[in-house]
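for the recovery benchmark. tokens below, seq after
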């Protein structure tokens, strides 16, 4: 199973995902390019000029800013393929030149270290694991491979190959350096991609060696970097969620190409642990600002700090949820690879959950502002500030009810370019192809071109999903061709009906309806997925949502915001009755393409006065409250205020 990309998959229409991508092409990617190429803002491009000796100055920004520029360049590559934007094309060319000139003769490429070595000639490479050298290397490799596939050009690929060859030499001579400097290990994915593009097995071998070096440190390691156990012996999702998901994605890439059975066993177990006990209903992951590793007090002296972390099973707070944007995006990358590895629809379901909830919430409707942290609840008058990781060290955190998206995060800008490249690459996640198969993973208006047994085939998809569950697929074959169209059955769906020219198809495999036939001319495939609003509850171990529910329609999670409540009514006073019926209303403005939910809810009396911890139960009966619920994907676009996904339940 491979993605249908490079012009083979196109998104059109006005669905939420198509709108998100259209705004990214028109606004997000160009505006972020201005930030990245500004010598007074991000200084990302400028760092390469300084490293090359083409400009005076010092390194500015975090050590992983090289990788953040590479992520933006990846998004720009996709944008140029769609828009042929001249300014973006010029940025790509300038960056390729600067990157090549900044690279050392032996292939090493890291602007912070290269610039520092001028002032400190004895400064060593890989001296600080938090310099993120291999993280930057990996993002360059991924950029280079995608750019080469889409353009045929080697301008980035040449630099990436030199970096990988440098890593091979380091692995031969001083492997212990790579065993320690592997923070946010994008280089595992990167080296496997180089193997796919070049066909040179030494890069797959390098990926295997690097993974062997990751872990097995025992008491000297920590869950923060998932390096206590060897990777093949790991069974739980632990520690820093971005590092974890990048590691698991790299492991899956290697397993895809090598078939390593122990790696696959580990990955299935880790996924099950995450899916059953550590992921939010929105697709957010990495619940904790700070946690402990190992858990509890099993060995008091071995407890070490973790941050941005997977916590204990079922430890999923809402107001203090961390849920770094990069963690959910890393989850998408991992899930996509697990989908390719297994062909099982559960991984496409996981991608869908992020695409319709966590991902669009990370970026404002203005297409230029971003969340780094993604809570499921925001309240007024919180008596402690919640830090924003993108703020400088001396910044004063905003009040809890003023936490809004930011255009630029000087201390840590890793999430926005990651958000941008995933949005740019959305067509990548819609379809996948095999020699005689086409998988339809997501329901988005657009088209895909593929080949069934040597015959060109075009598939047109038309839908206004997720507002409606009706999907029409028109399959056009240039000549009679045998092939299978595999259409995902969403895990949340009560049922799904697929008809071909009016005749029902019943064959199901791995969560997909399989339409296997000889295709001639134009054939219409109709998909019907009944959509209804479900009141969702959590496992009783999730203490923070005991006796609470959240409204979910199809894949879309809903929330209540202050903007839709009467003045003086807080989110803690809103309750839903178990018998609640919802009226659906097509959204407009920022909610276009979505459905809004209206219902008669209950307003509870205020239970505990301000300034007190406990109070006697107020038995005053609740009163009716007209309630509007909006997609969580679009919260915080109407000014500051409260928000909650989970609401109290009245039976």
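predicted aa per position
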């Amino acid at each position: 199973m491979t993605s249908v990309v490079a012009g083979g998959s196109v998104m059109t229409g006005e669905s939420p995902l198509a709108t998100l991508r259209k705004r990214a092409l028109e606004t997000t990617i160009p505006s972020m390019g201005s930030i990245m190429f500004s010598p007074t803002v991000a200084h990302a491009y400028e760092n390469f000029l300084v490293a090359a000796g083409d400009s005076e100055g010092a390194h500015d920004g975090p050590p992983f800013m090289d990788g953040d520029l590479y992520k933006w360049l990846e998004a720009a590559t996709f944008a140029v393929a769609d828009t042929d934007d001249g300014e973006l094309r010029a940025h790509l060319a300038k960056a390729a030149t600067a990157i090549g000139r900044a690279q050392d003769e032996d292939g090493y490429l890291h602007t912070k270290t290269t610039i520092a070595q001028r002032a400190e000639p004895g400064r060593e490479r890989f001296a600080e694991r938090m310099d993120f050298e291999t993280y930057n290397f990996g993002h360059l490799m991924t950029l280079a491979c995608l750019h080469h596939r889409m353009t045929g050009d080697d301008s980035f690929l040449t630099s990436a190959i030199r970096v990988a060859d440098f890593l091979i030499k380091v692995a031969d001579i001083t492997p212990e350096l790579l065993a320690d400097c592997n923070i946010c290990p994008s280089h595992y994915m990167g080296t496997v991609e180089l193997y796919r593009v070049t066909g040179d097995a030494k890069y797959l071998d390098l990926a295997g060696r690097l993974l062997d070096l990751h872990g097995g440190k025992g008491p000297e390691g920590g869950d923060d970097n998932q390096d206590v156990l060897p990777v093949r012996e790991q069974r739980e999702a632990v520690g820093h969620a971005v590092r974890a998901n990048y590691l698991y994605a790299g492991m899956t890439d290697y397993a895809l190409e090598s078939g390593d059975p122990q790696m696959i066993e580990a990955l299935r177990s880790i996924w099950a642990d995450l899916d059953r006990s550590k992921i939010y209903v929105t697709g957010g992951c990495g619940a904790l600002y700070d946690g402990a590793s190992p858990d509890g007090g099993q060995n008091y002296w071995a407890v070490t700090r973790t941050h941005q972390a997977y916590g204990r099973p079922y430890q999923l707070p809402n107001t203090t949820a961390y849920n770094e944007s990069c963690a959910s995006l890393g989850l998408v990358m991992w899930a996509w690879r697990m989908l390719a590895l297994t062909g099982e629809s559960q991984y496409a379901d996981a991608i869908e959950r992020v695409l319709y909830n966590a991902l669009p919430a990370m970026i404002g409707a203005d297409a230029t502002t971003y969340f780094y942290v993604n809570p499921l609840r925001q309240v007024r008058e919180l008596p402690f500030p919640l830090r924003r990781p993108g703020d400088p060290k001396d910044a004063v955190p905003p009040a809890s009810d003023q936490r809004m998206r930011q255009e630029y995060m000087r201390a840590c800008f890793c999430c926005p370019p990651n958000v941008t490249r995933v949005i740019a690459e959305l067509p990548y996640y819609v379809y996948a192809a095999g020699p005689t198969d086409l998988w339809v993973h997501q329901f988005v208006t657009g088209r895909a071109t593929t080949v069934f047994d040597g015959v060109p085939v075009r598939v047109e998809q038309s839908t206004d999903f997720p507002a409606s569950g009706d999907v029409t697929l028109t399959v056009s074959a240039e000549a009679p061709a045998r092939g299978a169209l595999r259409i995902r059955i969403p895990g949340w769906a009560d049922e799904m009906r697929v008809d071909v020219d009016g005749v029902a198809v019943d064959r199901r495999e791995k969560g997909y309806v399989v339409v296997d036939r000889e295709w001639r001319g134009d054939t219409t495939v109709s998909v019907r997925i009944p959509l209804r609003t479900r009141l969702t509850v959590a496992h009783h171990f999730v203490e923070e949502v005991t006796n609470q529910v959240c409204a979910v329609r199809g894949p879309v999670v809903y929330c209540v915001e202050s903007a839709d409540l009467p003045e003086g009514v807080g989110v803690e006073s809103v309750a839903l009755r178990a018998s609640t019926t919802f009226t659906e209303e097509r959204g407009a403005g920022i909610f276009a393409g979505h459905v809004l939910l209206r219902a008669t809810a209950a307003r509870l009396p205020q239970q505990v006065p301000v300034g007190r911890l406990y109070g006697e139960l107020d038995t005053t009966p609740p009163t009716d409250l007209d309630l509007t619920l909006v997609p969580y994907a679009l919260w915080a676009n109407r000014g500051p205020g409260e928000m909650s996904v989970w609401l109290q339940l009245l039976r």
